Amino acid sequence: MSHPDSHLHPHATGPAASVVEAHSTPQSLKIYAGWFCPFVQRVWLVLEEKKILYQYIEVNPYNKPASLLSLNPRGLVPTLQYEHKPLYESTVICEFLEDAYPYHGLRLLPREPYEKARVRIWIDFVTSRIIPAFHRFLQYQPPQGVSQDEAKRGLDQVRQDFLGKIKQFAVEIDVKGPFFLGVEPSLIDFALAPWAIRLWIFDHFKMVGLGVPAEGTGGEDEEAWRKWRRWVKVIETRESVVRTTSEKEFYLPIYQRYADNTAQSELAKATREGKGVP
Q1: In the β-sheet with 79-82, what is the strand arrangement from edge to edge?
Q2: Residues involved in catalysis
Q3: Which residues are within 8 A (CB) of 172 and not within 5 positions of it... i.e. 6 or more apart?
Q4: Which of 1, 11, 2 is nearest to 246 (CA)?
Q5: What burial letters (b/e) apply to 131-153, b meaning 16+ CB within 10 Å?
Q6: Is 54 left (phi over 0), alpha (psi -120 to 50) or beta?
Q7: pLDDT digits (tens, 9 = 90+) for 26-46
Q8: What is the CA radius of gyration of the chain?
Q9: Residue 197: helix, strand or coil by DSSP?
């Protein structure tokens, strides 16, 4: 019996399809990926930004091939194969690529120890705070038997929790920007980018919408929201982000299952159990 989430579009589309094609020839560095996965996109962005030579291998992590399981017993993506050795966990892979290819493309971690540690703190904040709040909002379903007003209040509560986490991040963005540390992007920008470019799903699937304050309506938090709006705009138009994103229509059935709280990914199940990123 096939996994309930396994019937997804089999490959990247739009600009991302061209990037996959350009990286289809065998290389010693291989990324086992799913085009739809934001954790994969984290690593993919780093590979593209650092201009590292790699082979992209599309797999369906809900129908785990033996080649993936031989490297990662959990069968999760992204999984990296480096000199015939496996690596997994997206943040670990991203830092590894920075360390292993220090002179390729952009430098994504500061040299100064304090700033490097600060970037790591906020990457952890993205994974341990923002992403779980993102999914609590996306997967929220009201308890059976509650009134429409109670259901809307419950949804608004998880929305406000998510916006609160976003605001905490936004406060820390460099005043002059446009990126988190200033003029140039760093690993923290690419750690959050895949979720930032998926924020449209809340307006599409949730009746209360996302609700980021429009320009001039942020009250005492306007400065934080100004920095956030500027950051999202520069992330959405970043070449590596555009080139690793598929066409919106193919994400819709995937996120419909999350919005209905019927998705069976490890993250979806952890969210239902009140846990963080597994």
Answers
A1: 55-58, 29-33, 79-82, 85-88
A2: 37
A3: 122, 180
A4: 11
A5: bbbbbbbbbbeeeeeeeeeeeee
A6: beta
A7: 999 999 999 999 999 999 999
A8: 19
A9: coil
Q: Burial level of 172, CB count in 10 A (0-12/13-18/19+)?
A: middle
The per-residue pLDDT for range 128-168, each reduced to its tens digit, is 999 999 999 999 999 999 999 999 999 999 999 999 999 99
If we measure between CA atoms, which residue out of 104, 54, 101, 100 comes closest to residue 79? 54
Amino acid at 79: T
DSSP 102-156: TTSS---S-SSHHHHHHHHHHHHHIIIIIHHHHHHHHH--PPTT--HHHHHHHHH
Which pTM was predicted? 0.97
Q: Quickly tell me which residue has 């480096």 as its tokens.
A: 82
**Separation CA 189–CA 119 (nearest Å):** 9
Mapped onto helix, strand or coil, the DSSP state of residue 54 is: coil
Q: Phi and psi (nearest 5°) for 57? A: -120, 110
Question: Where do the DSSP E strands lie in 11-63?
Answer: 29-33, 55-58
